[in-house]
Amino acid sequence: MTGKKFNPATQIQKLGNFGEFGGVNPSITDSSTFTFLTAKTMLDTFHGESEGCFLYSRHWNPSNKYLADALAAMEGTEAAWVTGSGMGAITTAILQLCNSGDHIVTSVTTYGGTYAFLKNYLPKFNIDVSFVNISDLAQVEAAIQANTKLVYTESLTNPLLQVSDIPSLSEIARKHDVKLVVDNTFTPMILSPFILGADIVVYSMTKFINGKNDTIAGAICASNDFIAAISDVNSGTAMLLGPVLDSLRSSSILKNLHTLHIRMIQHSKNAMYLAQRFKEIGLKFEYPGMPEHPDHELFNSIRNEEFGYGGMIALDLKTAERAASLMELMQERGVGYHAVSLGYFKTLFSNPGKSTSSEVPEEIQRDMGMSPGLVRFSVGLDHDIENTYKLIHSCLIDME
Ligand SMILES: *Cc1c(COP(=O)(O)O)cnc(C)c1O
Known about the structure:
Elements: H1 8-13, H2 39-46, H3 62-75, E1 79-83, H4 86-97, E2 103-107, H5 112-121, E3 128-132, H6 137-143, E4 148-154, H7 166-175, E5 179-183, E6 200-204, E7 218-222, H8 224-230, H9 237-241, H10 247-257, H11 260-280, E8 285-286, H12 296-302, E9 312-316, H13 320-332, E10 337-338, E11 348-350, H14 362-368, E12 374-378, H15 385-398
Parallel strand pairs: 2-3, 2-4, 4-5, 5-6, 10-11
Antiparallel strand pairs: 1-7, 6-7, 8-9, 9-12, 11-12
Helix pairs in contact: 3-10
The structure holds pyridoxal-5'-phosphate (PLP).
């Protein structure tokens, strides 16, 4: 990287792909299958021995390749593969790495669907999972066993916004010859997990990367070897379970990816503004951009500075009833929408205990430090965030 700091936005910009007829955007693939001029090339392609040939869209197609190449550039990985959902990316990566009888060490705070997959689904395959506090590095290392295949975490955990110490986790993983898999859904561009030492980076592109809440999609960014392994026609998890992204969606997401850097800066700027105002009026909340956040220094030491601290704030209203009345009032007064998901241009808010983390049993939610009155904000791209704050403030005053 010629001594210069890695910058995900400039990596994408350098790609400069355009369409085969000179269109400024790459042409969209509208085919599930592809023709071959010779029988031999088709056979070679089946065996993964022909460069640049497309066989069948569940395997690869040009639109998915354009998007995958852009994501690989953003992460600094050799390759990437795009999936029909974030869960498709997470489950593919995990099932590729593990066989029956293997073991996983994971952060206990993860996306609810990921938690449910690790906790309820993997036992079907006799894959054992240890849930740890990912900030306690000694606990992480102590949980690794002879049959451990991977350590799993989210760079910024959902919903408590704990920052994973990716460089230290990577050191531990390498020492024990296990893979570090990081879900970077909350912090695209802000954190570059692969550059920090992760082996595999997974995304729900449904969130910030696409940013429009018009589709579900995911991605796996990793080495050429890993991407070749998941797409192998005889044994690849992606090829055989088939969670591929549709090519029309790929081309749409690629266009949105090109504005991601600007959006991340604005999400971060607006969230920081709200966090500062929340602090002034003495609210209890988590935002990793505030010096009071326990992982603030760690975040500063690993983030790509110019993109800020992200758009997520977790506000603690103590009880589910108070959280509900604040959210109802905020929606009524136009702060944003009471909806799950994140990374949208409008502000979204939800109570994780009653929604996205409801898969996590209540006593574990308590152990995680998750308050029943948590309101998770995904701060939007509002032009006038000062006015948004005034609206939130009026709701806080008027709620019962
Ligand atoms: C939404 C989300 C997922 C799941 O992604 P889908 O696109 O909904 O399948 C995984 N991890 C995190 C952190 C998420 O926010």
